[in-house]
Design brief:
Helix content: 40-55%
Shape: elongated
Number of helices: 5
Order of helices and strands: HHHHHEE
Largest sheet: 2 strands, antiparallel
Number of strands: 2
Strand content: 5-15%
Structural class: mainly alpha
Strand order of the largest sheet: 1-2
Length: 86
């Protein structure tokens, strides 16, 4: 399946689609298997509310996930307090 946020050349059309605010094309790409989660960061950085709503409708997680959940290996608990190592 494709991705809206891959760094290789396959993602270039989808990045251009997001950058040009082509909501109907974003929807088409998702319907053909592009992962809606991969486009969230780019859409947020462009402050594109309509595209963000569309991605969420297709199942993307748009809320910010706490760093400690994304990188639990960067934390240690001491005396009931979570301490960031990195």
């Amino acid at each position: 399946m494709g991705s809206l946020g891959l760094s290789d050349s396959r993602s270039q059309p989808s990045r251009i689609t997001i950058a040009n605010d082509q909501i109907h094309m974003i929807q088409t790409l998702i319907q053909y298997g592009v992962d809606p989660n991969a486009g969230v960061h780019l859409v947020k950085s462009m402050l594109n509310e309509d595209a963000l709503i569309l991605l969420e409708e297709y199942g993307a997680t748009v809320e910010d996930i706490p760093r400690k959940q994304l990188y639990p290996e960067d934390y240690v608990e001491e005396n009931g307090t979570l301490i960031r190592l990195r």
